[in-house]
Write a structure and sequence with these properties.
five-stranded antiparallel sheet; four-stranded mixed sheet; about 30% strand; 42 strands; about 675 residues; alpha+beta
Length: about 675
């Protein structure tokens, strides 16, 4: 059922000379009832703007062209002249390090209380036209975020401006975002659409929430002009109030419908929707405490409090037929309690005409201020106005101003009357509120778990086979030596090379064994060295580098070591397959079979020996190569052929009965 709430207050001005405190109800349905702390309402008294309760417990409000800081008892702590008329409809806001920002005419003024009483100006223009520049449009709203160190200003028909604390423009955003060939926002009317609300800051999520003339709500990042999501509430109404929960939720209040909606801050989806009693079209903003409870006053005289999950509690529990709650409740210093103001009206009536509910009243009788904790339902304090607290305010500086319920409620909240709850720091209150945001767990349908498990195993096996196939192809087909050749020839060639290597290994092993047991010529040793080199060539062809095409023989040929001879000892050196240097020493014995011969008979000319040895070397090398090719063709070596060939050239060595040979095999690892 749609509700249209119309609160009609008929003016009945009365002179109250016989009472010490009179109540004057204003001729304006937009403003709540106004009270004067004097015996009579003064026509010359100024009206205070919407108040701000500071972190230091003082109340800040502006009037005409001055900003006032009041103590909680109503006395003025300091006054700063602004030189511009302030906007009484917008409350001042907190800035950095105790600074205050407020709207005055077409400008934003920054007030630094620390400069009061010094030569520096306490008030300066933060935003506004320079002399001679075009006057900007009306400033609709102002807010500040200390997490992003930015001040946000909403200018009518111009958009949202984000300024750094140093006054430098960071970014701007309008209600329409053109991206990827289409636009977001203002779907019904792009031309006359603009932001209509105060920039609402979510201090836990660092989000900014705005509304436009078409009933759409925006979520932006405090650090960039990008839209996170847009939610359309035009089907409910184009006028609504946004309240940050600072607990993973943001709340939207639609006064015409008398409903409260909770939205998820990440997606903008509606979590729950609850009905309330009839609401005032102005001044009905709810408040959210550190437990996550949202509380809003209704014209039926009740305070409606909803838990984070949407559970409802009403205060007071008894029906208040003659009362209304038409100003927003305020949080106490602990963050867990709220102060509310209920106004008892004379001649209150309500009736329904079609889809609308009309509430009318003649005049207010008195007001009742109450302090309670919505989460527990405990009521800690309640007092009527006029009463004890109003008498304390009567002799203060507030007698120069006309006060309404919202201002009086701010002074009662700042004075902490009847509040037994401890007051933590702002940081701890924010931490307690942000901790109410619960992590989101996704519920995923798993289906038949056994079938899913079998499918995952099958999929894993297929992936392993594919990985093995890819690796096999990368190893064999991507190498240079295989380009233009098929795989069968390549594998056949590798098999042939392995057989040749085994034959060379056998031959070299037998030659080295015989060389260690008997006297060997230099030709035999040279033959062993050549066979070792050829075996290394086969090993290189079987290696990865050969398959990659890097099979050059550069730098692999080793120099043959010449025999060392000193007249009595001759040595031969070669390097084995395992990088081992092998040296064979042949030492001439002093004893002989025929007795003592002369040195000229036993000594062999070195030149003659060198010539014979060279000839034997060439002959043995030729035969060794001829025999070495036999295993390549046949795939194996005959043991008889190897033993006959290896020592065929040993008969060319000069023999002497008077000379015995001692062979010593010496191995040295390199």
């Amino acid at each position: 059922m749609r509700f249209q709430i119309v609160l009609l207050f008929h003016l009945l001005l009365q002179s109250a000379s016989t009472v010490s405190l009179s109540v004057q109800f204003q001729n304006n349905s937009v403003n709540p009832p106004s009270f004067s702390v004097q015996g009579k309402a003064r026509k010359t008294a100024s009206r205070l703007s919407s108040p701000l309760i500071g972190y230091d417990g003082r109340v800040y409000a502006c009037s005409e062209a001055n900003l006032f800081a009041f103590e909680s008892n109503g006395s003025v702590f300091w006054t700063v002249p602004l030189n511009y008329t302030c906007n009484v409809g917008l409350a001042p806001i907190h800035g950095e390090r105790g600074k205050i920002y407020l709207v005055a005419e077409d400008k934003v003024i920054k007030v630094n209380p620390s400069n009061i009483g010094t030569n520096e100006s306490a008030a300066e223009i933060f935003f506004g036209p320079e002399p001679g520049q075009e006057v900007p449009n009306e400033i609709i709203g102002l807010s500040a975020s200390m997490s992003s160190l930015s001040v946000f200003i909403n200018v009518k028909h111009r958009g949202l401006f984000a300024y750094g604390l140093d006054g430098q423009l960071r970014w701007t955003a309008g209600p329409v975002l053109h991206q990827f060939g289409y636009h977001q926002g203002c779907k019904q009317n792009v031309r006359d659409c603009y932001f209509t609300s105060i920039p609402v800051i979510d201090r836990c999520e660092a989000n900014i929430y705005m509304s436009n003339t078409e009933g759409e709500m925006y979520a932006l990042s405090a650090r960039s002009p990008q839209f996170k999501w847009i939610q359309d509430f035009s089907s409910l109404d184009k006028v609504f109030t946004i309240t940050p929960g600072n607990n993973g939720r943001v709340y939207v209040t639609v006064p015409v419908r008398a409903i409260v909606l909770a939205l998820d801050v990440t997606t903008g989806n509606i979590l729950w929707q609850m009905n309330t009693g009839p609401l005032s079209t102005t001044g009905c903003a709810p408040v959210v405490d550190s437990n996550g409870w949202i509380s809003i006053g209704s014209l039926d005289g009740h305070l409606y409090s909803f838990s984070p999950t949407g559970s409802l509690k009403k205060f007071p529990r008894a029906t208040e037929l003659d009362s209304v709650v038409q100003v927003s409740p305020l949080l106490d210093c602990s963050g867990y309690g709220v102060y509310i103001s209920q106004t008892e009206m004379e001649g209150k009536t309500s009736h329904i005409v079609g889809e609308y509910t009309y509430i009318s009243a003649l005049k207010p009788r008195n007001a009742v201020f109450t302090m309670l904790a919505p989460s527990t339902g405990s009521i800690y304090w309640s007092e009527s106005y006029p009463g004890k607290f109003s008498s304390l305010l009567s002799g203060t500086d507030l007698h120069n101003f006309v006060l309404d319920e919202s201002v009086l409620l701010a002074f009662i909240t700042a004075s902490k009357i009847g509040n037994p709850l401890p007051c933590p720091t702002t940081y701890h209150k924010l931490a307690a509120s942000c901790s109410e945001a619960r992590p989101k767990f996704l519920s995923i349908y798993t289906g038949d778990e056994r079938a899913i498990l079998l499918f995952l195993l099958f999929e894993s096996a297929v992936l392993v086979l594919l990985a093995a196939l890819v690796r096999f192809c990368c190893i064999f087909w991507s190498k240079k030596k295989l380009h233009g050749q098929d795989l069968g020839k390549f594998l056949e060639k590798r098999h042939s090379l392995r057989l040749q290597k085994k034959a060379f290994d056998r031959t070299i092993t037998e030659l080295e064994k015989k060389a260690a047991e008997e006297a060997s010529t230099n030709a035999v040793l040279e033959k062993i060295g050549d066979l070792v080199q050829e075996r290394e060539g086969l090993q290189r062809k079987l290696s990865t580098t050969y398959s990659l095409g890097r099979d050059a023989l550069t730098g692999l040929q080793r120099k043959t070591l010449l025999p060392l001879y000193d007249g009595k000892t001759r040595s031969y050196s070669f390097q084995g397959a395992r990088k081992e240097s092998v040296t064979i020493f042949d030492t001439v014995s002093d004893a002989s079979s025929g007795g003592s011969d002369s040195d000229s008979d036993t000594e062999i000319s070195w030149h003659s020996f060198e010539e014979k040895e060279s000839a034997a070397k060439d002959k043995a090398k030729a035969k060794a190569k001829a025999k070495a090719k036999a295993p390549i063709t046949d795939g194996s070596f005959s043991d008889d052929e190897i033993s006959e060939e290896d020592y065929q050239g040993s008969s060319s060595e000069p023999a002497s009965s008077s000379r015995s040979s001692m062979h010593m095999l010496h191995g040295e690892s390199t």
